[in-house]
Amino acid sequence: MVEVIDEELVRRVQKGDKKAFDLLVLKYQGRIIQLINRYVRDAHEAQDIAQETFIKAYRAMASFRGDSAFYTWIYRIAINTAKNHLASRSRRPTDDDIEMDVAEQFEGENSLRDQETPEGILLSEELGRTIQVALDELPGELRTAITLREMDGLSYDEIADVMDCPVGTVRSRIFRAREAIDKKIKSLTG
Amino acid sequence: MTDREKDLRMRMSMLMDSDLDGHDNQRLIDAIESDAELKAAWGHYSQIGDVIRASASAPMPDKNFAANISALIAQEPTIFAPKNVRSLSSKRVSMVTIGLAASLAMVAVIVGKSVNDHAEVFHTASYAQAHSNLVAAKYGNQVENQADSQFNDYLVMHNESAYMAGSAAMLPYVRVVGSGPGR
């Protein structure tokens, strides 16, 4: 399915709208981190590389021509960044060897890691569990509709065929499923 | 939640799945960008999809991950890319097509001219030969006949190669006039 919304957001970023890039980050952060985690088995490192990936992507947005889908393009950047990270890790000096001026450069890179407190990690794990539990608690029709959409990537028309109901009903079921889960997320994050 | 908010969120859900008419997209994206609650819901809707697709052990992004990137992006220079890169590339294709067409047209003109010139050469050669015979019959002079023949060879060669320099071929009467005795 063509991600029309991605094309629109990319167009906006290319016209100078930085907020549109926020929406792309929100949409793809989870998928990018999960992808990077296949290469780097450390949650902290995965988040750092994901951050680098998004920054690289933003800087390269002007040259993104739309020949491939945005997610294909950013997946490629993520994989290359992860591979480069792995390749350079053996060459990286240990913390003890870092001199002061170099340490200042590293400070910026590590700023995100400093914010990843154990509580924060716990919260993100809890978030995943909350969503999973909320999903399990959904009425069967809502769970089927959103699973067909998110897991199998079916369009609304295809879901309507599978579930033998009007497209309008599919829209409503998917929306209600998201809203029900969102309510649980909000109660967790406050 | 008001009916308007509910309508906005339902349309955002459709937008996320590319099920919304393109005309409505712009205003809705504006609303999501400027409304903190809608933006948060956009993030949550995405996370729901991530959890459904992910294995149980897959890591979730840190709570502040997107906000941190947003802060870093704010420090980056703003991008102003060409308005429509796709149309640029299609323009490039058009230019190449026009260039090829022009080249083909040029080749056709040169080849056509070359063929015409060669046709002219045959005509000129026979004309020069006839003229040479006429001069020989009239004067019977070996030396003059030889000189006339050399001059005619020059004219034929010149006519053959004239098109390569871009100049027009000579008209037959010029050669007749030019190769006459006492001129």
Compact description:
Chain A is mostly helical. Helices cover 77% and strands 0% of the residues of chain A. Chain A contains nine helices and no strands.
Write up what this structure looks like.
The complex is a heterodimer of chains A (190) and B (183). Chain A has 190 residues and is mainly α. Chain A is built from nine helices and no strands. Mean pLDDT of chain A is 82; it is low at 93-115. Chain B is built from seven helices and no strands. In chain B, 75% of the residues lie in helices and 0% in strands. In chain B, helix 1 crosses helix 2 (22-34) and helix 5 (85-139) packs antiparallel against helix 6 (142-161). Chain B is rod-shaped, with a radius of gyration of 41 Å. The chains are: A mainly alpha (190), B mainly alpha (183).
End-to-end separation of chain B in angstroms reads: 109 Å
Number of strands of chain B: 0
Average the pLDDT over all residues of chain B and give the rounded result.
Answer: 72
Strand content of chain B: under 5%
SSE order of chain A: HHHHHHHHH
End-to-end Cα distance of chain A, whole Å, is 35 Å
Major sheet of chain A: size, sense and barrel closure?
none
- Largest interface, Cβ cutoff 8 Å: A-B, 77 and 57 residues
Q: Keywords for this structure?
A:
heterodimer, A: mainly alpha, 77% helix, globular, B: 183 residues, mainly alpha, 7 helices
Outline the fold blueprint.
The complex is a heterodimer of chains A (190) and B (183).
Chain A lengths: L3 H11 L3 H19 L6 H18 L9 H20 L10 H16 L2 H20 L2 H11 L5 H8 L3 H23 L1
Chain B lengths: L2 H14 L5 H13 L1 H18 L11 H11 L9 H55 L2 H20 L10 H7 L5
Helix pairs in contact in B: 1-2, 1-3, 2-3, 5-6
